[in-house]
Amino acid sequence: MSVKEEAKNLLGKGMDGVLFYQMKDGSAIPHLFTSKDIDEMPDVREIPDSERYPLSDILSKLLMRFSSAKFGIVARGCDERAIIELEKHQQIDTSRVSLIGFACSPELAKICSCSKPYTESLADEMNEAQEISRGIESVERMSTPARLGFWLSNFSVCVKCMGCRNICPLCFCKECSLQDEDLVESGVLPPSIPTFHLLRAIDMAGRCVMCGLCEEACPAGIPLRTLYGKVSEIVREELGYVPGTRGVKSPLEELGSSVGSDDDLKS
Amino acid sequence: MASDENVLLQDLTPIRIVAFLCNWCSYAGADLAGVSRLSYPANVVTIRVMCSGTVSPYHVLKAFQSGADGVLITGCHIGDCHYLKGNYMTYKRFQVIQGLLQFVGIEPERFRLEWISASEGEKFAETVRDFTEEVGKLGESPLADEREAAKSREALMRRF
């Protein structure tokens, strides 16, 4: 069954709209399809790989604006992970959301270095995801001073456009640490490095769903996926948490006695 | 007499360490170290917080950005937290911050977490001695150069 038919089904079942992309002048833009224009909904293969938006973030705002409406969403793997993570942060009420999943093209999965470019509903049909490098190893092979040099030179071209934060589906805070005068001096370029980027990296710990939109949005080409990928790796290895999976909340968000497997805790 | 001079010289080394002390255990431990007249290097700037769990990663990053060569967090032993589980949070955050610092090329030895109870004055003095020595060996924070660079960049920007 095509995505359009599934979307029509949802609208027939009382959903108020289905969120997906609309093709306009050759570009994809996010659009909420209703029963009026559902026939114009493009097929997933018509959407260019390079044109992605944080649909989960748009969905979250739609749900807040229309407090009793129900929405469907045609989602990629990363959109679904973001929705799950946003629900844990009380940003999305999934009881009012129906998800139609699709898998990204293998080319896009490779560009994104995505290990799960499909939604949970498709997990059985897909091949086992392979472990994908995000450039973490090549940074780790450098000596300590070389690593600092690598990151400082990358950070120093930051123009503080806030694109990484604005596009991020998990950046929903009303008060942002990046705009805190005490942490990041305003009116100076590049912003306080490396603090500016490390603040965001710390905030991505236990949240980042590896959609890679930040790196795509960055006009300075900072390898943010590598940085946040490493933070996610630490959280996974030390605290045993993978953002975007169903079940418990991030241990960094909850005051609990689970601290991972480390034995030297009591020393 | 000569040894006294050495102690003074050691105290004057430019290593700067920011230490966050939890109000209920470590601050009392540091107080005990003082009352017991134990000597430890004066490179440490202590900040008293209500719980080590209130030390945000932001504070640690800000300390490094502002010129700290090392950051020490001390809190109650696991199980002894005045707020029951505050120090579990400290430990979780500590792991993430230390891993991140290492990844971006700041020596992880510059950031340390110790559990020090109110009765462990000697442990506090020993921790500070040991940490100061370790950070002293690493020398000034590698971010010091970056601060200089930022200043000259700023001066350059103001000329235009």
What does this structure look like?
With 267 residues, chain A is of the alpha/beta class. Chain A contains ten helices and four strands, in the order αββαβαβααααααα. Chain A has a four-stranded mixed sheet, with helices on both faces. In chain A, α2 packs across α3 (77-88). The relative contact order of chain A is 0.11. Chain B starts with a helix and ends with a helix. Chain B is α/β, with parallel strands linked by helices and 160 residues long. Chain B is built from six helices and four strands. Chain B is globular and about 55 Å long. At the A-B interface, α5, α6, α8 and α10 of A face α3, α4 and α6 of B.
Spatial strand sequence of the major β-sheet of chain A: 2-1-3-4
Helical amount of chain A: 25-40%
Largest sheet of chain B: 4 strands, parallel
Q: How many helices of chain A in DSSP terms?
A: 10
List the helices and strands and how they pair.
The complex is a heterodimer of chains A (267) and B (160).
Chain A: H1 3-12, E1 17-24, E2 27-33, H2 55-65, E3 71-75, H3 77-88, E4 97-101, H4 106-111, H5 136-140, H6 144-155, H7 163-167, H8 195-204, H9 213-217, H10 224-239
Parallel strand pairs in A: 1-3, 3-4
Antiparallel strand pairs in A: 1-2
Chain B: H1 2-11, E1 17-22, H2 26-35, E2 44-49, H3 57-65, E3 70-75, H4 86-104, E4 111-115, H5 121-138, H6 143-159
Parallel strand pairs in B: 1-2, 1-3, 3-4
Helix pairs in contact in B: 2-5
